[in-house]
Amino acid sequence: DTEVTQTPKHLVMGMTNKKSLKCEQHMGHRAMYWYKQKAKKPPELMFVYSYEKLSINESVPSRFSPECPNSSLLNLHLHALQPEDSALYLCASSQDRQLGYTFGSGTRLTVV
Amino acid sequence: AQKVTQAQTEISVVEKEDVTLDCVYETRDTTYYLFWYKQPPSGELVFLIRRNSFDEQNEISGRYSWNFQKSTSSFNFTITASQVVDSAVYFCALRSGNTGKLIFGQGTTLQVKP
């Protein structure tokens, strides 16, 4: 298995909703990442987990809450989002932080 | 400061033409990694190549080739005999330090017309 699987592929949520994005990999990678990509822009790093511990938070608002329950799974909990949070959310993993990433196909989030 | 510049916002070519996508980077680190990713309309980022700062050997993979020149801080990507399926956004990215953070350029949208 050489993939990073993200679910759901599409999500529409209201500003008062609570939802979660899920990311899974079975490549034995020990670093996992969340990126946010707005339309016609490059991806921007949000969080880095290394060996299941949060190692980088790029000053992301608290309405985004990451969680790494185990080495294969990464979640992003969403609460009280704003319309400007609508974007493509990409998950990635790597064997370690020095090597190339494998990206998932992303979750397209729309906040209404 | 670390930065990646892709000066070409959009490129349009006709099928079978060769096309080069430019990438210029800035970093003060002596050890760093450079990447190219392809992002088709479906959204996923497809890994194309990784180069470390100590390996300036150019690489060819099928119709794709990469030219890494430390002297000019450039890592350019050439597609030979382009095809419609090459139409996508291409990102050049830099990783330096040990944070694992990828710094992306703004991307180049390549349109290959039949």
* Backbone CA Rg of chain B: 14 Å
Q: On the 0-100 scale, what is the average pLDDT of chain A?
A: 93
Tally of separate helices of chain B: 0
Uncertain runs of chain A are none
The percent range for helix content of chain B is under 10%
Largest interface: A-B, 27 and 21 residues
Query: Share of helix among residues of chain A?
Result: under 10%
> Taking all residues together, what is the mean pLDDT of chain B?
93
Distance between the termini of chain B: 41 Å
Bulk shape of chain A? globular
Number of strands of chain A: 11
In whole angstroms, the N-to-C terminal distance of chain A is 35 Å
Number of strand segments of chain B: 12
Beta-strand residue fraction of chain B: over 45%
In short:
Helix content of chain A is 0%, strand content 57%. Chain A has 112 residues and is mainly β. Chain B has no helices and twelve strands.
Tell me what you see in this structure.
The complex is a heterodimer of chains A (112) and B (114). With 112 residues, chain A is an all-beta fold. Chain A contains no helices and 11 strands. Helix content of chain A is 0%, strand content 57%. In chain A, the strands form 2 sheets. In chain A, strands 2, 4, 5, 6, 9, 10 and 11 form a 7-stranded mixed sheet that branches. In chain A, strands 1-3-8-7 form a 4-stranded antiparallel sheet, with no helix packed on it. In chain A, a hairpin with a 2-residue loop joins strand 5 (44-50) and strand 6 (53-57). The termini of chain A are far apart. Chain B is an all-beta fold and 114 residues long. In chain B, the strands form 3 sheets. In chain B, strands 2, 5, 6, 10, 11 and 12 form a 6-stranded mixed sheet that branches. In chain B, strands 3-9-8-7 form a 4-stranded antiparallel sheet, with no helix packed on it. A two-stranded antiparallel ribbon of chain B has the order 1-4. Chain B is globular, with a radius of gyration of 14 Å.
